[in-house]
């Protein structure tokens, strides 16, 4: 059994030739030994340092075994220019909870509502524990869903239960599939989520890249592979089946009322349910509130989705001469504080991607962004959003949700149901000149050049416009008049939080609110981590009950 070591701060200058070979060379020169000494060298972390552009370098942490153990042990405590020459490798895995056979295959198998990242990773942990959960998904399976979404983008009818928000894989399926997260799932759970995405078909680079992404084209296959494996482990999927409301007696869950595709309703007995319904299930929020689940209003952000030529962003981020270095499409993260005191920032940036019509309700229009794995489209896009809370939309429980509905209705009317887009120059002066040469909109969904003013409250529009010159100082040309804006970005996170206690249970025993919709996650990875955590709490609840 080999002993593994870790080395940090190794650097390579792009363009890369043979990455692993080059890393072995670099490690060998640092340890002053022959490259052949290194066994099974793997990349642990990789990031691109562009602080001194155009002089760019990749920075790595690697793991390996060494033929000459004595030499390695001697170097263990030696300090090099950038800290310890060598460290011992510490395993970073997460042990899933075991469940004794007595309660495997329970009478009432847990119900998971929603097959987004939270629902899927929750199902994985429960399935591993032998609890064979049942997944209710109001939308269709990923193939049928893709057909419906593409038909809608080409001008077809919006399907209220199968669209960019709803259906197998959840909201993230038609996305860039960025897997970054701020959530403290570091350590076991975070690594486990990435490991599973890679196991189900995502590019292995996600395991070590500091900006891991999957791409919508690959994500659809990942979701399907995960379904096949979960079904093999006893999980059952019920597509086009909408959870309507819980049946509650004496403060405890006793059943679930659901509606099938043919609109017939049915009631299932159930005493454990994980709610992974996402930020757009507005009807479900109302039903849960009527059923007595405690919830509170939550802040979120709204704005427009901006588009620039990707080459402009690449040049700004990498400096001149980047074209010959084999670099990925560049991204950015921007923030500004405006005179009103509100924060304006870039959100869900999609390099080499498309603006998409991410609506889920008739007469309301919401946009978001998506990229394919290669991030090869001509434009970079991101949401430029401003944080909103009760001070903007009122302090009633559903005021945030209704505010989203209102701005989406205005966006729908702005271009007769098509995505309204406008140049920054026109919006700034509320005059419509029309599209300029040079930047062709990259959009999935029908669009039309139309004024955006009036979709957002004036104060928020002013905040966003005020931030552009600030961003223009951080990225040259970002505030160019030809910059394109599309409306409206309204579903940045949930407008509500369903309250849960330290055991993950809601105000109704047996119901576990989870993921983005419940207000405990923001993004694919954090939702998946929350799904796994909720599953562990469900297992704890079932074990203690047994
Ligand atoms: C276009 C787009 C691009 C995005 N890009 C990224 C990105 O690149 N990186 C990132 O980290 N995040 C991205 N996000 C956000 C990310 O998708 C979400 O944060 C994440 O999917 C939340 O996961 P979830 O499982 O909590 O909820 P969701 O993924 O929203 O899943 C909820 C599921 O529940 C189902 N459902 C809802 N109500 C019911 C009901 N009553 N009965 C049965 N089923 C129901 C829905 O159909 C849906 O499938 C993007 C979102 C969108 C829309």
CATH architectural grouping of the largest domain: 3-Layer(bba) Sandwich
Spell out the CATH superfamily of the largest domain.
FAD/NAD(P)-binding domain
Named once each, the bound ligands are: flavin-adenine dinucleotide
Q: Tally of extended strands?
A: 26
Main beta sheet strand tally, sense and closure: 7 strands, mixed
The total tally of domains equals 3
Shape: globular
Regions with pLDDT < 50 over 5+ consecutive residues?
none
> What Rg is obtained from the alpha carbons, in whole angstroms?
25 Å
Strand content: 15-25%
Number of helices: 13
CA distance, first residue to last residue? 41 Å
Give the helix proportion (percent range): 25-40%
Could you state the oligomeric state of the chains shown? single chain
CATH topology value of the largest domain: FAD/NAD(P)-binding domain
What structural category characterises the helix and strand content? alpha+beta
Task: Give the overall average pLDDT.
Answer: 93
Spatial sequence of strands, sheet with the most strands:
16-17-20-15-24-21-23
Please identify the top-level CATH class of the largest domain: Alpha Beta
List keywords for this structure.
546 residues; alpha+beta; Alpha-Beta Plaits; FAD/NAD(P)-binding domain; 3 domains; seven-stranded mixed sheet; five-stranded parallel sheet; 13 helices; 26 strands; 25% strand; binds flavin-adenine dinucleotide
Task: Show the helix and strand layout.
Elements: E1 4-12, H1 19-31, E2 38-49, E3 57-66, H2 69-75, E4 79-80, E5 83-84, E6 87-88, E7 111-113, H3 117-128, E8 134-137, H4 142-153, H5 188-199, H6 216-232, E9 236-239, E10 242-249, E11 252-259, E12 265-269, E13 273-275, H7 282-290, E14 295-297, E15 300-309, H8 310-318, E16 335-337, E17 343-350, E18 354-357, E19 367-370, E20 379-388, H9 390-393, H10 399-414, E21 419-423, H11 424-429, E22 443-444, E23 447-449, H12 458-474, E24 484-489, E25 496-498, E26 511-513, H13 524-545
Parallel strand pairs: 7-8, 7-13, 8-9, 13-26, 18-22, 21-23
Antiparallel strand pairs: 1-3, 1-6, 2-3, 4-5, 10-11, 11-12, 14-25, 15-20, 15-24, 16-17, 17-20, 18-19, 21-24
Flavin-adenine dinucleotide (FAD) is lined by residues 113-119, 136-139, 164-167, 170-172, 174-178, 242-243, 276-278, 281, 284, 348, 356, 358, 368-370, 515-517, 521, 523-525, 527.
């Amino acid at each position: 059994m080999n002993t593994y070591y870790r080395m940090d701060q190794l650097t390579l200058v792009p363009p890369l030739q043979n990455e692993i070979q080059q890393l072995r060379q670099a490690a060998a020169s640092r340890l002053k030994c022959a490259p052949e000494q290194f066994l099974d060298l793997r990349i642990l972390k990789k990031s691109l340092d562009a602080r001194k552009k155009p002089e760019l370098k990749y920075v790595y942490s690697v793991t390996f075994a060494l033929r000459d153990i004595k030499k390695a042990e001697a170097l263990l405590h030696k300090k090099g220019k950038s800290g310890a020459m060598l460290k011992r490798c510490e395993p970073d895995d997460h042990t899933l909870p075991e469940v004794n056979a007595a309660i495997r295959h329970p009478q009432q198998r847990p119900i998971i509502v929603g097959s987004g990242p939270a629902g899927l990773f929750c199902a994985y942990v429960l399935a591993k524990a032998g609890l064979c959960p049942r997944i209710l998904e109001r939308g269709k399976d990923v193939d049928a869903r893709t057909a419906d979404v593409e038909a809608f983008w080409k001008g077809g009818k919006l399907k209220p239960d199968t669209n960019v928000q709803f259906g197998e894989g959840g909201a993230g399926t038609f996305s860039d599939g960025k897997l970054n997260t701020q959530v403290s799932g570091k350590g076991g759970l975070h690594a486990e989520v990435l490991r599973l995405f890679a196991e189900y078909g995502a590019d292995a680079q996600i395991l070590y890249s500091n900006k891991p992404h999957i791409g919508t084209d690959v994500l659809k296959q990942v979701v399907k592979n995960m379904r096949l494996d979960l079904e093999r482990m006893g999980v059952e999927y019920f597509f086009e089946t909408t959870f309507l409301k819980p049946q509650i007696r004496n403060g405890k869950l006793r059943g679930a009322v659901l509606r099938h595709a043919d609109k017939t309703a049915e009631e299932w007995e159930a005493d454990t349910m994980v709610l992974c319904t996402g930020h757009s299930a507005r009807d479900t929020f109302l039903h849960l509130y009527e059923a007595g689940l405690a919830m509170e209003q939550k802040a979120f952000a709204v704005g427009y989705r901006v588009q620039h030529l990707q080459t402009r962003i690449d040049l700004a981020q990498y400096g001149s001469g980047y074209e010959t270095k084999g670099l990925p499409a560049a991204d950015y993260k921007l923030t500004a504080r405006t005179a009103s005191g509100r924060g304006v920032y870039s959100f869900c940036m999609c390099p080499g991607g498309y603006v998409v019509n991410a609506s889920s309700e008739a007469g309301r229009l919401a946009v978001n962004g998506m990229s394919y794995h290669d991030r090869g489209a001509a434009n970079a896009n991101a949401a430029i959003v401003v944080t909103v809370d009760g001070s903007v939309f009122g302090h009633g429980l559903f005021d945030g949700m209704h505010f989203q509905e209102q701005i989406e209705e205005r966006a729908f009317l702005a271009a007769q149901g098509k995505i309204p887009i406008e140049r920054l120059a026109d919006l700034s002066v509320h005059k419509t000149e029309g599209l300029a040469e040079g930047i062709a909109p990259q959009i999935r969904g029908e669009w039309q050049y139309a004024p955006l003013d009036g979709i957002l409250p004036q104060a928020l529009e002013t905040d966003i416009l005020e931030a552009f010159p600030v961003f223009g100082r951080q990225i040259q040309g970002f505030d160019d008049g030809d910059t394109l804006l599309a409306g409206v970005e309204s579903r940045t996170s949930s407008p509500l939080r369903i309250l849960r206690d330290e055991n993950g249970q809601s105000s109704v025993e047996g119901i576990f609110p989870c993921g983005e919709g419940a207000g405990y996650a923001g993004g694919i990875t954090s939702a998946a981590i929350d799904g796994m955590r909720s599953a562990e709490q469900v297992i704890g609840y079932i074990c203690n009950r047994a």
